[in-house]
Design goal:
Layout: E1 2-24, E2 34-44, E3 49-54, E4 60-66, E5 70-83, H1 95-101, H2 127-133, H3 143-157, E6 159-160, H4 171-177, E7 179-180, H5 182-195, E8 200-207, E9 224-231, E10 241-245, E11 250-253, E12 260-266, E13 275-281, E14 284-295, H6 298-301, E15 323-332, E16 338-347
Parallel strand pairs: 6-7
Antiparallel strand pairs: 1-4, 1-5, 1-13, 1-14, 2-5, 3-4, 8-9, 8-12, 9-10, 10-11, 13-16, 15-16
Helix pairs in contact: 2-5, 4-5
């Protein structure tokens, strides 16, 4: 499937921001199963400096610096990708074998997936995650079978409610209240898998959505999404991650489906926040976000690179199914200038 993604973020500041530095994770991954046809990043005002680097997980991150006062910041990422659909593969490994593989043993061969067994900022180790996971992990059950059962239970046991959590709500709190959004469900499932000794990572991206019959889909009406990938050691080298979406009860090899676009991977949300940065000034702000995911005919995609499409973005709040959150910390210097740290998330 060929998909076009337009992701627009706008900040309106009061008073104006004097200087700012930002990092953005807005370029989809290019892999054997997801082809990145084109990607452009439009930033207004024009940054004094901009550069791209690849982080430790293989994600492309864009750094940009604004060195003059500005009352607004507008960031538009446009991407075209070609996705594929793969059903879950066959695996003979039971989950206990995977757990033992990642127990510390002196002289054992290193496996880079080991870093996804440990706790991370938004995914702590806690006995309550293990207690919830255990019914899915009976003795000698296959790893993929256990992971799918856990996914189905989260899908059935939890209520999707966009206003029930904030972007920084602890996973343990979301587990206790049995409701949340896709980010919460992904963090809970990752925590459960890690407590059973299974490497699991956070996947951010997009999901193509269709409006009800007879309703015209609005530009900017989609949102970003999040799901989980579990490590299966007996699959071919380089293809050992299987994706599971507890929000929608869908799974697949490399992706839950061809209507998904993988943006970035990490230990949890903190590694892949779409935009974060440090600003001086801008004590208050208004945030507007619009995301559009739409199928694209092949003849249009071939000439898309470098072109900018128009989209009608819409404000998002925790009461909408696509919501946006921002965290800020502020300090006061002797010259009375303000310094804020900001991070952004869109949640489905």
């Amino acid at each position: 499937m060929r998909l076009k993604v337009t992701h627009e973020t706008r900040y309106d500041y009061e008073p104006a921001v004097e200087i700012a530095q930002h990092i953005a994770y807005l370029q989809p991954l290019h892999t054997a199963d997801q082809q990145l046809v084109s990607h452009t990043l439009h930033i207004t005002p024009t940054p004094r400096q901009i550069s791209n680097t690849v982080d430790v997980f293989g994600n492309t991150r864009s750094y940009f610096s604004l060195q003059s006062p500005h009352a607004t910041l507008n960031v538009v990422a446009e991407s075209v990708v070609v996705t594929k659909n793969h059903e879950l593969p066959k695996s003979s490994m039971v989950w206990e074998q995977v757990r033992e593989r990642f127990r510390y043993q002196s002289g054992a061969e290193f496996d880079s997936a080991a870093e996804f067994v440990f706790a991370s900022p938004f995914v702590p180790h806690h006995s309550e995650f293990a207690a919830y996971a255990r019914p899915s992990f009976a003795p000698n059950v296959g790893l993929l079978e256990a992971a799918q059962d856990l996914m189905r239970r989260i899908y059935s046991d939890f209520v999707y409610e966009s206003q029930s959590t904030q972007f920084n709500t602890p996973a343990l709190e979301a587990l206790a209240q049995r409701k949340g959004v896709c980010q919460d469900f992904a963090h809970i499932m990752i925590a459960c898998l890690r407590m059973m000794g299974i490497p699991a990572r956070y996947v951010s991206g997009y999901l193509l959505t269709e409006p009800p019959p007879g309703v015209v889909k609005l530009k900017g009406s989609d949102a970003s999404h999040a799901w989980v990938a579990v490590y299966v050691p007996d699959l071919p080298e380089g293809e050992r991650w299987c994706d599971l979406d507890p929000t929608n009860n869908r799974c697949g090899w490399h992706s839950p489906g061809e209507d998904y676009v993988t943006l970035a991977i990490g230990r949890d949300f903190t590694d892949v926040s779409p935009i974060r940065g440090v600003i001086h000034g801008g004590a208050s702000h208004t945030l507007t976000v619009g995301v559009t995911v739409e199928p694209m005919p092949d003849d249009q995609a071939s000439g898309f690179a470098g072109q900018q499409s128009q989209s009608q973005s819409q404000s998002q709040s925790q009461s909408q199914s696509q919501s946006q959150s921002q965290s800020q910390s502020q300090s006061q210097s002797q010259s009375q200038s303000q310094s804020q740290v900001q991070s952004q998330t869109q949640r489905l």
